[in-house]
Amino acid sequence: MAERQQRRAGGSVVVAAVFMACACATSCAGSGATVDDAGAADPVKTLRRAADTLVNAGSSKASTSMEMATGGTLVTIRGDGVYDYRERLGRLKVLLPQDPAGTSEHRPITELLAPGALFMKNRGAGVPADKWVRVDTASLSDGNLVTGGATDPLAAAEVLRGTRTATYVGATELAGTEVRHYRGTADLAVAAKGASIANRGVLAAAAKGFATASVPFDVYLDDQGRIRKVRHRFSFVNGRRQGTVAVASTTLLYDFGVATDVRLPAARDIYAGKIAEE
């Protein structure tokens, strides 16, 4: 049992570097829409219940992007997939940026998002092509808000449960949908206390692991209160450079009610060996 836990912990440390390693390698190298504004009367209350509205919506497609400026270069990781808010299960195909020389691309990484866990396929670096790597998200210093290169859509919504201050910016249009734009700041520690059991540990870990628990955000809600776009700005400490790094994570949600059919890998398909660093 101790050996198995040691292997799992070691894997988590290495996988936690997926986003960071990519960034370090690179460094080395509003439109007059007419939306009923009644819901804008109490922005803080409206945003704190946004995650519940997603759960009621059932599911959606999701597109993600994560950006970090390092060494004068903007690193962007993109993802696309589906998410089941009731089952807390999602599937994303995450595409890492080109190598510093721009001559090759990483294979897309398939990520399965589940309560308390992140499963990754095509992780590379010694992992067989038919195997998955499993990571305990609560064991990560950022709770996997940044590590996997994409923020879990429901976790992104639950960050808003910690909304401290918020203002209604105005009505606009997003991908042909009329939306309300809000801007504010959330507290990860407060969000963790009000989050679902599945994300409580995740957000609590992020509150302790980030450089600050305060998270500025912009969010766009449709006329049903569903998140159509949310952009968070996280700050974490870069141990290698002894400085604070800002990461912008954007999540777009659309096609609500879509079929998801997310299935987690069987135990025999999870890699238990050593993961080499890339």
Characterize the biggest β-sheet: 11 strands, antiparallel
Task: Say how many strands there are.
Answer: 11
**Structural class of the secondary structure composition?**
alpha+beta
- Unreliable stretches covering 5 or more consecutive residues: 1-17, 20-35
CATH architecture: Clam
Radius of gyration, rounded?
18 Å
Average pLDDT, all residues: 83
CATH topology: outer membrane lipoprotein receptor (LolB), chain A
Shape: globular
Number of helices: 7
Strand content is 35-45%
Fraction of helical residues: 10-25%
Q: Strand arrangement, largest sheet? A: 6-5-4-3-2-1-11-10-9-8-7
Quaternary structure classification: single chain
Summarize the structure in short.
This protein has seven helices and eleven strands. The protein has 278 residues and is α+β, with helices and mostly antiparallel strands.
Keywords:
single chain, 278 residues, alpha+beta, outer membrane lipoprotein receptor (LolB), chain A, 24% helix, globular
